[in-house]
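Let us work through a complete example step by step.
Step 1: write down the sequence.
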Amino acid sequence: MFKILFSSSMNMVLTIHFGDFVGAETVAAAKVVLADSRFTVKQKVLQDLRRVTSATLHDTDRAFVLQSSKVTKRFMDSKIALLYEAGNPVNQIHDERRARFSKAAALPNRLHTSSFSDAAEWLGVDEQDLNTFIEQNFDPSE
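Step 2: predict the structure and record it as tokens.
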């Protein structure tokens, strides 16, 4: 499951994944972002994976990678941070999915981190502002 948040003040789009990370969820989220008129290629992107509780390697085969690489081309110029929860066993699945995908469609402006501070710094936003924005706008029950 995921939720998309836009912050005009930070010039950022946040994709917050939570619960079960199902199939081609990253691509599904990317398609939602691209279809939203608020998205511009100048925006920074935070893909927050800290709340993911399970994931599999389903839908990470070559056909999926080739199909999804078409979607991610639109993010080539975007600065992207992937934020993980330190010690989460699901991170191994995310690492394998990312490795498979990056062979066909690497994105150059990406940071992979389990540090919220590092993600905020990489994206050029105030850590407290980012944290407050997430706390005020993310509700997994919506």
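Step 3: interpret the result. The first strand starts at residue 2 and ends at 7.
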